[in-house]
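Q: Here's a chain of 206 amino acids. Please give me its 3D structure as tokens.
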Amino acid sequence: MASPFWDVDAAAGYVELSDPADNPWDAPVVGGMVLPGISEVDCTPEMELDVKKSKGKDGGTITFHGRKPAQVTIRTYLWTPEQWTDWQFRILPTLWPVLSKKDPQALDFRYPATEALGVRSIAVVSVSPPRPGRAFGERVVETRAIEFYGAKKQTATKTKTITGSKVGVRDEYNPGVATSADGKVIPATPANGAVKPSAVTVTPTT
């Protein structure tokens, strides 16, 4: 789904908005709830990389290990009594469930910029008290969260450990020989415990 343009006024021909929530770039949806006031969202997803420098040479090798859970910061600006009441009694119990003695849980997250980056679920880490905002009479509450997504399940496999020069893997092209753990070719007989290739599996690593 495409994210909408951030300047709703311009996109609508400069029609005056009656509510900040009319612009999704100002009103993130967390746990199915539109945040009151106006909010700013910072989120920069990063890849997990393993960089190995080539000794004595320019450059190196890069191994990708998938994407890190993104760090998400939401700054919500409030300036009316109604917004503050809404934040205390509708929003805060869900963002900070310790107040309602409930277990924390991942929350659905909808915001145009993060939607485009694939960040759609978060777990709240901290919520600040209201602090002075950008203008007189305004306060800002900062919510810090981390992206949540379920880990992919790995298929469990059995691993057979091969040790010693007298235990090897049978050569599927030459059933009469096997390769030992130290790389030597040995006769494939029941006496030395050689096994068929299909009996040896490798456990996948992440």
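Q: Can you summarize the key feature?
A: The first strand starts at residue 29 and ends at 30.
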